[in-house]
Amino acid sequence: MAAPSPLPTHLYKILPSAPPSPLPARLPLSDLDKNDGYIHLSTSEQVPGTADKFFADSEELFLLKIKYEVLAKGTDGDGEVKGKGQGKAELRWEEVGRGCFAHLYGADLGRGNVSEVVGVRKEGSWGESLELEW
């Protein structure tokens, strides 16, 4: 499926608990990501709905903020671009029941591709609590 137009500036990975600080080169995959074979990501517009659907009972979430262009290049968690012969990293836009979402194949998230970790406390719904950059 085609990427949205315009392309987002950032993508986000939602975590139910704080990642290690400082971030390691490779963060452990969630059980869902392990089972599906890719890392689930959301645009700023998708994060509130995803948080309300999958993390409704959480009072605090942590978002890994990642520059879109960094993942589109195939940058792994260690900061290296994974190209041919290295198990190429690939960012794909795929249709899921609720829309078109970004999925990262063949790479990990970590200090080499995550630009910021944002902690957010829930006030009302996640939609009311989250204001993110597109």
TrEMBL record:
<dbReference type="InterPro" id="IPR009297">
    <property type="entry name" value="DUF952"/>
</dbReference>
<protein>
    <recommendedName>
        <fullName>DUF952-domain-containing protein</fullName>
    </recommendedName>
</protein>
<dbReference type="Pfam" id="PF06108">
    <property type="entry name" value="DUF952"/>
</dbReference>
